């Protein structure tokens, strides 16, 4: 009898294990089936490493890439192909962050009920390929990145990285002009931010220096910090914090940074998303960095100015200015048309409003509204010294026009003046964006 009972228990245990195993498999089949189906080793989906199914379009239905019946192709128009290269990616998989790789499971048209679609699925991106073309031409052969985002919906309307190449033709790998060509500089590269980082230090100052708005900051062209000198681009005399941001005064922001200390500025850089890997529809965005220096030395001062060892990705800066535009809260950016990534709160409404007003003042007081005709612009420029005698050119901000709620960032490697070069590119792209209908 005992032998029979033991055998019965063993049979029940075996049955229970089988049921649990089947339940686990069913769960994994439902949750991970699309990933299994789009695995590069699946010969029904890939041939010689090339995705065999699916059509990728821009927001207006322009075909950016298509694969069916063993034949793959890119957009018909040359400028569309090169300007959308990094957001689309390539069928060879060299650009690992491109949509062809990141959204392969969607392109297969896989369903847990019906399996793979015969010709795959059509996946629409939020990108406007015509705006991408404008941005590509605005970079005029210079290495850099341009992004435009609707800060109400989170849709990324423009994502351009240069250098680029025609995926139909390839490029000469011995040509140094194509160094780093596979890297999407919008999301996979970090740069010295220069004065655009003052928007981070400003947020910390607003929330941690009680008498900030009553202060006067004096600039004589330089300030001595210990044994070193922090230099400024001008001699601004006595100024308010609002004027100091418009002047992009290093002396004023050195004083503010020393009072805050590196730990406080680092805390804000972290919570605002500059020092962490971010996520864009499952694509990992490179983290920036901020080395905390609490010594009270010139290193502390320079770190709050956006120099020292500060590094920022264009994507993180876009996300931040979108939150400023949105009263402290912004939708997470998305590349997939019709899909939301949720929202993120980065600032209090009061802090966001104060920063926005100062960015608007900078345009009126320093940059000149005529430089950006017809645009209701809030912005900050940056000219970031990189140690080889050149500077990266930055310009970032947003439009307050309710019909065109666009945040943007422009980065030009070794581009010189932020306002003159990145600002000019931003104006070109924004003028084209407001003329479009979305």
Concise account of the structure shown:
This protein is an alpha+beta fold and 438 residues long. The chain has helices at residues 2-37, 78-83, 85-88, 99-102, 104-107, 129-139, 198-208, 241-247, 250-260, 262-271, 298-305, 314-325, 349-367, 418-434; strands spanning 46-47, 50-51, 55-57, 63-68, 71-74, 122-124, 144-150, 156-162, 217-219, 222-225, 228-231, 237-239, 278-280, 283-285, 329-331, 343-345, 377-385, 391-399, 406-412.
**Percent helix among the residues?**
25-40%
Output mean pLDDT: 90
Report the uncertain regions: 26-39
What is the C-alpha radius of gyration, as a whole number of Å? 25 Å
Q: What's the number of helices?
A: 14
Summarize the biggest pleated sheet: 5 strands, antiparallel
Spatial shape: globular
**Multimeric status of the protein:** single chain
- Spatial sequence of strands, sheet with the most strands: 8-7-19-18-17
Q: Could you tell me the strand content as a percent range?
A: 15-25%
Span between termini: 78 Å
């Amino acid at each position: 009898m005992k032998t029979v009972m033991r055998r019965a228990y063993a049979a029940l245990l075996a049955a229970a294990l089988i049921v649990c195993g089947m339940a686990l498999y069913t769960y994994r089949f439902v949750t991970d089936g699309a990933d299994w189906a789009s695995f590069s080793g699946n010969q029904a989906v890939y041939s010689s490493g090339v995705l065999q199914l699916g059509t990728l379009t821009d927001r207006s239905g322009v075909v950016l890439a298509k694969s069916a019946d063993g034949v793959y192709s890119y957009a018909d128009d040359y400028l569309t192909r090169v300007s959308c290269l990094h957001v689309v990616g390539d069928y060879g998989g060299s650009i690992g962050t491109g949509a062809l790789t990141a959204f392969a499971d969607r392109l297969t048209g896989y369903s847990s009920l019906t399996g793979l679609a015969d010709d795959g699925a059509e996946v629409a991106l939020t990108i406007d390929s015509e705006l991408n073309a404008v941005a590509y031409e605005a970079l005029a052969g210079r290495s850099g990145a341009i992004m435009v985002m609707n800060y109400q919906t989170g849709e990324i309307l423009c994502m351009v990285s240069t250098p680029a190449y025609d995926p139909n033709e390839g490029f000469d790998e011995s040509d140094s002009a194509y160094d780093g060509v596979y890297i999407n500089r919008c999301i996979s590269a970090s740069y010295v931010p220069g004065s655009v980082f003052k928007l981070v230090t400003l947020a910390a100052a607003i929330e941690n220096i009680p008498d900030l708005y009553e202060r006067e900051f004096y600039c004589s062209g330089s300030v001595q910090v210990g044994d070193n000198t922090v230099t400024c681009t001008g001699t601004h005399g006595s100024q308010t914090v609002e004027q100091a941001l418009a002047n992009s005064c290093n002396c004023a922001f050195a004083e503010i940074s020393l009072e805050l200390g590196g730990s406080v500025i680092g805390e804000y850089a972290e919570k605002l998303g500059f020092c962490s890997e971010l996520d864009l529809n499952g694509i990992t965005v490179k983290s920036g960095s901020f080395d905390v220096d609490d010594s009270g030395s010139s290193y502390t001062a320079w770190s709050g100015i956006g120099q020292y060892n500060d590094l920022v990705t264009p994507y993180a800066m876009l996300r931040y200015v979108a939150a400023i535009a949105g009263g402290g809260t912004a939708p997470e950016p998305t590349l997939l048309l019709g899909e939301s990534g949720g929202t993120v709160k980065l600032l209090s409404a009061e802090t966001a409003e104060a920063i926005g007003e100062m960015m608007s003042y900078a345009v009126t007081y320093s940059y000149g509204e005529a430089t950006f005709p017809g645009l209701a612009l809030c912005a900050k420029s940056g000219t970031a010294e990189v140690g080889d005698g050149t500077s990266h050119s930055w310009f970032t901000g947003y439009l307050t026009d309710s019909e065109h709620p666009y945040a943007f960032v422009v980065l030009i490697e070794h581009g010189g003046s932020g306002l003159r070069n990145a600002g000019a590119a931003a104006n070109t792209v924004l003028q084209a964006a407001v003329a479009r209908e979305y």
